[in-house]
Amino acid sequence: MNAVKPPILIIDDDEVDRYVLKRLIKEAKLELTIFEKNDGQEALDFLNDYENNRQEYPEEFPPILIFLDINMPRINGIQFLEEFSKLRTKVDDIQSCVVMMFSSSEREEEKAIIMAHDFVKGYLVKGTFKAQELKEQVLSVIDAPVSDI
């Protein structure tokens, strides 16, 4: 019997950055179900469609971890966090979902705003980490034994 792969959501408008993150996940030998969205609005629409997604992906929805970029069109990462915070109060299953920032921004004022959300559990700067560090970060925030992944 196959174990369920923990689901994650990658929100980034840059296809290359999403590809790089997926390669690092593969290199880290993390077996995850990966959903991808191009911006914060697409991601909110996806998460707000809770009932349909639970039916379509009964074992893989909602995601337990979201990798979130900051600089995106329509709804950026900071705006997404505000809306996601509201959504968490409405949908019980989403309350356990955590966010890991995945951005090229190293601006301290942005980090302070972002890390003020208790569900944000890490901040990875694009291009500055290796697969092993990613694996350690992912395993530190998702509640899954190493042998299950």
TrEMBL record:
It comes from the Bacteria. The keyword Phosphoprotein applies. Residues 7-141 form the Response regulatory domain. GO terms for biological process: phosphorelay signal transduction system. InterPro entries: CheY-like_superfamily, Sig_transdc_resp-reg_receiver, TCS_response_regulator. PROSITE patterns: RESPONSE_REGULATORY (PS50110). SUPFAM superfamilies: CheY-like (SSF52172). Gene3D superfamilies: 3.40.50.2300. It holds the Pfam family Response_reg. The modification 4-aspartylphosphate is found at D69. Keywords: Phosphoprotein. This is Chemotaxis protein CheY. It comes from Marinomonas profundimaris. The lineage of its organism: Bacteria, Pseudomonadati, Pseudomonadota, Gammaproteobacteria, Oceanospirillales.
